[in-house]
Amino acid sequence: MTSSDNLFVTIRDGDFEGIGELSPATGSAWTAASGKRQLEGFVERWGNDPDFLSPHVNYLRMVEAEIDPPAMAALDVALWDLLAKRAGLPLYRLLGLPLPSEPTSVTIGINPPEVTLERVPDILRRTGAKCLKIKLGSPDGREHDRAHFLAAAEAAAPFNAALRVDANGGWTVDETNEMIPWLAERGVEYVEQPLPKGAEADLPHVFENRKLPIFVDESCRTSHDIPGFAHCTDGVNLKLMKCGGITEALRIVGTARAFGLQTMIGCMSEASIAIAAGATIGALFDYIDLDSHLNLNPDPASGAPIVDGVVIPTDAPGHGAHLNVAQ
Known about the structure:
17% strand; 38% helix; two-stranded antiparallel sheet; alpha/beta; Enolase-like, domain 1
């Protein structure tokens, strides 16, 4: 992606203001414009209700109103931010969590090998990240995937970066069973979403003899999806924009843990507002992929610094992020 049209949502209660963010998913019908219209109608309907400041109440109302998940996330995050500011606490402490300690991945997209060799050192040097997520699933086939991966691995070696792979649903069952052993031999930690969304019935055919942990991403939007594939995956990757915010993210984590699954949190094209919100619950995850704000030029917000490879929420009340200039 070369750009993203995002929507920032504020909610005020006396002297306190919470802020959230909508970032549409790539290739979806969810947009900032549609989310704005939906939220304006929702606030007109419920804004004067005594329970309007409850994230849990409003999440259920937004589900019933069929509001786009990224728009749900924007209001949900703003409400959690507001509640923590009213309490005078960082949001992670309001939720009873410690600071995250797992390093974030930074992502290299599908490129020709010569471009990959140039971009990977720049990404790792600029961010100080300790983990590299390599996008595979090229429409040009598995040989392109292998060449791109080898270039990324070569470029990342001087930085001692851990290697992770996201196939973005770009492989068939046979290709997955061919690629995973090849990647395992080259030190990859896990493979994310090898099969397309909608092909969950085929997951057992790649899960049984897997050489690496398999995580689902697009196949899991809410906690209700997890029971259908819990027996044939190692973990789930949630995104605030995909599930509708922190409220449902907590339910996904609880459901995943109940099924013995690992957890990961990722992102779309969020600025530091939504990234900071994700970082506040970062301690709940085995793997973290909160790097989109590091790719923005410029990031219109601040408050989600990367410290020794870890995206850390600040100790300011709320999620700790703010817009640099009023939009």
